[in-house]
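pasting High-affinity nitrate transporter for the record, 203 residues
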Amino acid sequence: MARQGGAVSLSLLLALLLGACLPAPAAAGVHLSALPKALAVTASAKPGQVLHAGVDMLTVTWSLNTTEPAGADAAYKNVKVSLCYAPASQKDRGWRKSNDDLSKDKSCQFKLTQQAYAAGAPGSFEYLVARDIPTGSYYVRAYALDASGTQVAYGQTGPAAAFDVAGITGIHASIKVAAGVFSAFSVAALAFFFVVENRKKNK
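structre below
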């Protein structure tokens, strides 16, 4: 019996050691569908309006929804505001796809701001559309974060109220003008040499 007890103890010890060496299971991500839509979010851009990267400003405001009970935002410590691709700009682009699991979501790639949440008071932020924002259709989403930085609530302007951003292509107007001038000069030079060659042949 003593040997059996020793064998059981040894097996239990090995099992515990093996369990300690194995990686811990990944924590489940926060799901958007599980979050309360407790924030009212607005953006200065109207649906369908075109903002130009590096030029135009976007004003975003947020506050606790009036439908939420008093004190519902007691756990809110920060607000994170992001620019998200609208469905029209996600089509056939897997690297922009939205996912209910926020740890896998790829639609809200552009962080506009993160700042302390003021309970009972609206917040706002003025954002100059960054020069590296690509051309596309967008909306704004804001997350309320708790003390650990975990999303506990959200609000958004769309995607029904999506607006457009005209990105910078890298081709300036002066380059386009220069290219046009050189093209015209090339055509004129070609025509001139053609006429000269024909005259030589006729002589």
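Residues 1-8, 17-27, 171-179 have pLDDT under 50 and may be disordered.
The chain has two helices and nine strands.
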